[in-house]
Structure prediction request, 471 residues.
Amino acid sequence: MKHLTIALLLVMVMAGANAQKYITKNGYIRFFSDAPLEKIEAQNRQVNAAWDMESGQLAFKVLIKAFQFEKALMQEHFNENYMESGKYPDATFSGTVTDLNEADFQKDVINPVTLIGKMTIHGVTKDIEEKGTLQMKEGKIIGKAKFFIKLKDYNINIPQAVVKNISDRVEVTVDVTLEKLVK
Amino acid sequence: MIVTGGRSQDDLMSLLGDDQPQREFAYAAFKSSHLILGQSIEMPSPGDMNFWVSHHFGHINSGFENFYGLDQAFIRFGFEYTPIDRLCLGIGRSTYEETFDGYLKFKILRQSKGAVVMPVTLAFFSSVALNSSKWADPDRKNYFTSRLSYTFQLLLARKFNDYISLQLMPTMVHRNLVPTKADKNDVFLIGAGGRCKITKRLSFNLEYYYLLPDQVVNPPAAVHSSFSAGLDIETGGHVFQLFFTNSSGLQEHAFLTNTTGDWFMGDIYFGFNLMRVFTIKMPKIPTD
Prediction:
């Protein structure tokens, strides 16, 4: 009986701990390059993200090959020439959400937050700090962010022949809906 | 109580690590649908059209009076389009024997890893060439079918890594009309080729079609196996191929069965192919 009580307690505590985690496998990331000669857009709807509400820790894992372009040849060159996705299949972010003290996840409000951590793209890791929002809606966490990435920071080189086709910084839009992790 | 402590960042990342393996196709084994003169396993993406201008000069050892071949020109231009995944259709016109040609290419197997492992890509290629030049002897009875010749190929390729891709091309050419009785109507060849990337946008290509002996006489000149070496230069929507070859024809039956140049005698042609991609139909990307 005593063992059972402890076991039950343990299960409840673990369940409680897990309830703090939110996760998705089909988040959305779009990037947009606005160069004088060409606008290039790509979308990825298979973004993996997880957030630990208790500690504020946040993780993203983005499969590079899952980015879809309007032109198939662009997608091929993106993978083959620029991102080298055979060698570097994922981009990741690993960090924490700050400003959580004033955030309200009891009501349906949009909480501005700051994301601090390490972004790894094309095998290069950089410390970043960007703004975003988090919102609790119908038991799900909606996270949004928009920021710029400089290609040079991640050793992605644009050859002289296409400098007018590809911008040296691209706008990244993140929109994820995280669901409570159940195990 | 004991287990409530926060898990580390690594655990959070490991929550994301258990993706189901998906079938992942090898792509861009070659930079374009042509290895050099002949075909590669590649084709335009569905909805894309390629425009080709293939061009080469006369042979280099033709002396100063022909400016080492640059006075002469052989041209083929053509279009190819991929209406549905794995199937490509093409048409073209060459100056050599005033030839019109049409072809289709179909991918039977596709190299992939992940959920389905397939070590090679296998494609079937078939073309028909129509010689529209004047009859050699207009007085005798000439048949329209005599103008036609057909090429059938299996293209078997593997992309070994980002740099090396190799291809084998067992080939048969059927010629309805042959010049002499000793010439075979069905001509068999074994082709082999490959590419080695030098940089991300530059690759070195080789292509060799071994003509099995005692099939082609084609007087007056002796016929050789076609051998070509070239560079692919890719710049966004264009691919430029610069090459040296001993073949004067640019359509399959021409360079496969009527290559009269001999590399060792200096009968070498310099040429280039120019390819431009046009997106005819955009693939469907779900929007918000």
